[in-house]
Amino acid sequence: MITKEHSTPESNILNAAKGIFHRKGMAATRMQEIADEAGINKAMLHYYYRSKQLLFEAVFKSAFSTLAPQLNEIINADNSLFDKIRNFTQNYISFIVKHPYLPNFIIQELNRNPEFVEKLFSEKMPNIDKFRKQIENDVKDGLIKPIKAEQLFINILALNVFPFVGAPLIKGFLNLDDDDFLKLMHERKTEVSNFIINAIKI
Amino acid sequence: MITKEHSTPESNILNAAKGIFHRKGMAATRMQEIADEAGINKAMLHYYYRSKQLLFEAVFKSAFSTLAPQLNEIINADNSLFDKIRNFTQNYISFIVKHPYLPNFIIQELNRNPEFVEKLFSEKMPNIDKFRKQIENDVKDGLIKPIKAEQLFINILALNVFPFVGAPLIKGFLNLDDDDFLKLMHERKTEVSNFIINAIKI
DNA sequence: GTCTATAGCCAGATAGAC
DNA sequence: GTCTATCTGGCTATAGAC
User: Strand D: which nucleotides have any atom within 7 A of a protein Cβ?
Assistant: First the structure.
């Protein structure tokens, strides 16, 4: 049975907080702005979430636990390498078009709080052995050119994630308005996987 | 004749400010921290740079005017496409290893201040027509597979820039220490250009 | 639970002695 | 030009009425 999504004060606050924190980050966010966005009083934020720090942590955990499983797909899914690349590209870009500030937010806050990284990954350390084996086998079978699993993983991540993180830079350099940009991103759902597969296939 | 680099109070302050601003961004940076880093008094910062905002702008302009010409190379250099890709990859990665926080800083602040983008690019709007023509000709000549200039530009940027922007995420997922990470980045000076060229060459 | 008013702190900026 | 001391504003957090 699926839990019904009531619009509680907590969820209203959390949603408002996500919008502001994702765009501005911890330091630049003002509790007043979150209160305004949620249509409530500033004191209410503290009633429900004690402090800015705790509210921020709730937002960050939610963001990270949304993103991490998607990246884990690359490492742990059971399908073939090319299917993996196609699926991830398709799914990730579709998802991130709806949450464009999310990767940037996570990366930003990880940069500011290096101790976060240790805490987050110490609980459930990702293991790329399976992915590495898959690459090695595909190389041995003559399906793909030799490449390190780490480098391929970085390349997949880079081609999918960067356009959203670096959106303002890209828009500036290519002189694109929001509409042009979105069209390019839409194309990338297949463009990127073709690019990667062409780069490695024999 | 090359102007000699004296170590003036201004330059000391600016260098200290770069270190802090690049890592923490505008909002999270404290003037006191910059003063400590520069080994001077907080009042001196205001004596030389009026306000935090003005000091920040000096740092940002310096960062942007370092990065922009490198990206322009892709669009405007006169060499062949494959050489362009090889040169940029080699040069950019070598450079950024020494200034790892720079792209993240610029992207971050562009995200927070959308009006920045307009101001920065309105003065000297980059023009990708030349690059687009080059791609179209190489496609026509049967040198490379059909690809949009915009998509190729984004891919080159993504593969080179992202690993540094997303470093904490990558280190976490691949369980790398700083040393492992640096080794991978060194490999990428040739790895990335090979990857791109394999993806597009016929 | 929800609000108004305010306490308390922190950081940017300045006054003024040297 | 350089410092110490201090002002001022803004922001988080809480007290307390309802």
Answer: 1-5, 11-16
Whole-number average pLDDT of chain A: 95
- B161 vs B102: CA distance, rounded Å: 10
CA of residue B26 to C1' of nucleotide D1, angstroms: 27
Single-letter code of the amino acid located at B32: Q
CA of B48 vs chain A CAs: smallest distance (Å): 25
Between CA B12 and C1' C16 the distance (Å) reads 26
* Distance, Å, B32 CA → D7 C1': 17
Total length of chain B: 202
Residue of A nearest to B26 (CA): A28
Phi, psi of A201 (to 5 degrees): -70, 150
The low-confidence residues of chain B, meaning pLDDT below 50, are 2
Residue A135: the pLDDT is: 98
The per-residue DSSP string of chain B comes to -PPP----HHHHHHHHHHHHHHHHHHHH--HHHHHHHHTS-HHHHHHHHSSHHHHHHHHHHHHHHHHHHHHHHHHH--S-HHHHHHHHHHHHHHHHHHSTTHHHHHHHHHHH-HHHHHHHHHHS----HHHHHHHHHHHHTTSB----HHHHHHHHHHHHHHHHHTHHHHHHHHT--HHHHHHHHHHHHHHHHHHHHHHHB-
Chain B nearest-CA residue for A169: B107
Taking the whole predicted model, whether its pTM rises above 0.85 is answered as yes
Alpha-carbon span A97 to A103, nearest angstrom: 11
For residue A116, give every residue at least 6 positions away whose Cβ sits within 8 Å of its Cβ, in sequence order, or none.
A60, A109, A110
A32 touches strand C (CB under 7 A): no
pLDDT at A154 over 70: yes
Residue A77: CA atoms inside 13 Å, Cβ hemisphere, count?
Answer: 16
3-class state of residue A144 by DSSP: strand
Whether the predicted pLDDT of A2 surpasses 50: no
The Cβ of residue B82 has, within 10 Å, a number of other Cβ atoms equal to: 16
pLDDT digits (tens, 9 = 90+) for B130-144: 999 999 999 999 999
pLDDT digit string, tens, across residues A120-146: 888 788 899 999 999 999 999 999 999
